[in-house]
Specification:
Blueprint lengths: L1 H16 L7 E3 L5 E6 L2 E13 L2 E8 L8 E5 L5 H17 L16 H11 L3 E6 L4 E6 L3 E6 L6 E6 L3 E8 L3 E8 L5 E4 L1 H6 L16 H11 L11 H4 L17 H15 L5 E2 L6 E2 L3 E6 L7 H13 L3 E6 L5 H9 L3 E5 L6 E3 L2 H4 L10
Parallel strand pairs: 15-16, 16-17
Antiparallel strand pairs: 1-2, 2-3, 3-4, 4-5, 6-9, 7-8, 9-10, 10-11, 11-12, 13-14, 17-18
Helix pairs in contact: 1-2, 3-5, 8-9
Length: 377
């Protein structure tokens, strides 16, 4: 009965906000489906319903005129306003009846404008195929042939982003809360994401010392021009994979996990991953220090117990005295208060796996440096 009253309320709200649908909107008898019937299509229409995608229930607006290729919008079951749901249903019904594309921001599965929806429009005007935008809505519908649909939910560290496509590569432009704008590409022949140095292009430099470009340092028009016209000609950062870095498993000289890496190999793995993430001035140091960087004080800590806030404060003080910011590499974890301090100090904290050298981010700023998840297509 709760769903019955929920859909009755959505029906009344739709007529209140979009009275032009009049007698053509109604709740389907015996089902929790709010449907708008289109002109000359009494058996089909556009519907709002709660659907299950594997273990996730979502609100979905479905264009019944073209189930396989028509508009399909999804939102979280919890936290989505009724106004968003009925306005999305109205927008899809209007587009289906007129046989027109959805207007922005609905065409991007978003209920409101943002930097990312504006950038998507600028890219579309430059003939770049934008496939998806994630800004206010973290849910994305993925059609799964004739079986149904799947839902991908963006992680918080991914920030806001859009994905676009050319003939031979995927592109992602992200806006992160701490790092700002990031650009990543995935070439078809490789199948892995690689970071492009947007900051170096803006400044006319060979590389940037830190990933990301602050929001105010680049306009949306500049960003759209970069993606549409410059991106293809710029080399992306090298990507890191343990099995590639340390040899083919069939090679008798290969070093395979879980063998503990030598200090030199561990340092090589760490530098490769930091540069992969956009720390362009990090290198190995053959002197007293293991790592070299003009922007960052890079501290290596072998420990078995969690590092405390006082330890982070002391290390950050050393970095500040050198006129640099802190990158902490540790074999242990850090306490929650220490995580909070690291973010306030604009530092980066990574845990290092001894067997492979893999970096695992421990604070928010470090997590934002991660490359896109491979699931996104």
């Amino acid at each position: 009965m709760s769903w019955y009253w929920k859909f009755q309320g959505l029906h009344d709200l739709l007529l209140e906000r979009h009275p032009e649908w009049g007698h053509r909107v109604g709740v389907v008898d015996g089902k929790s489906i709010l449907k708008i019937t289109l002109v000359d299509e009494t058996d089909s229409g556009v519907a709002l319903a709660v659907v299950r995608a594997h273990h996730t229930q979502v609100w979905a607006v479905i264009d019944g005129m073209d189930v396989f290729h028509g508009n399909l919008l999804v939102w979280p079951l919890q936290g989505t306003s009724d106004e968003t749901l009925v306005d999305a249903l109205d927008a899809c019904a209007v587009a289906a009846e007129r046989r027109e594309p959805l207007p922005s921001p609905w065409r991007w599965n978003e209920s409101g404008s943002s930097e990312l929806t504006e950038l998507a429009e600028l890219l579309a005007a430059r003939r770049v195929t934008v496939e998806h935008v994630t800004a206010g809505n973290r849910y994305r519908a993925l059609r799964n042939g004739v079986v149904g649909l799947e839902v991908d939910i963006a992680e918080p560290w991914e920030g806001q982003f859009l994905e676009a496509r050319t003939d031979d590569m995927d592109m992602r432009v992200s806006l992160k809360p701490d790092l700002g704008w990031l650009v990543d590409v995935r070439y078809d022949q490789e199948g892995v994401w690689r970071r492009v140095d947007l900051g170096a292009w803006l400044e006319g430099q060979e590389s940037s010392p830190e990933p990301g470009v602050p929001l105010g340092r680049v306009t949306l028009s500049q960003l759209a021009d970069f993606v549409a016209h410059e991106l293809r000609s710029i080399d992306a950062a090298e990507y890191w994979e343990p099995e590639i870095e340390y040899g083919d498993p069939r090679d008798e000289n290969a070093v395979l996990a879980p063998v503990k890496l030598s200090p030199v190999m561990l340092a090589e793995a760490v530098v490769a991953q930091l540069r992969e993430r956009g720390f362009g001035d990090v290198s190995e140091d053959r002197g007293d220090s293991v790592f070299r960087s003009d922007r960052f004080w890079i501290e290596w800590r072998e420990a078995d117990s969690s590092l405390s806030t006082s330890m982070l404060q002391r290390l950050n003080g050393i970095a500040a005295a050198e006129g640099r910011r802190l990158i902490l590499l540790t074999t242990s974890d850090i306490s929650r208060p220490a995580v909070t301090f690291a973010d306030k100090a604009r530092g980066y904290v990574f845990q290092v796996r001894r067997d492979t050298g893999e970096l695992m981010p421990l604070n928010r700023r470090a997590r934002e440096t991660q490359l896109p998840r491979s699931q996104h297509t």
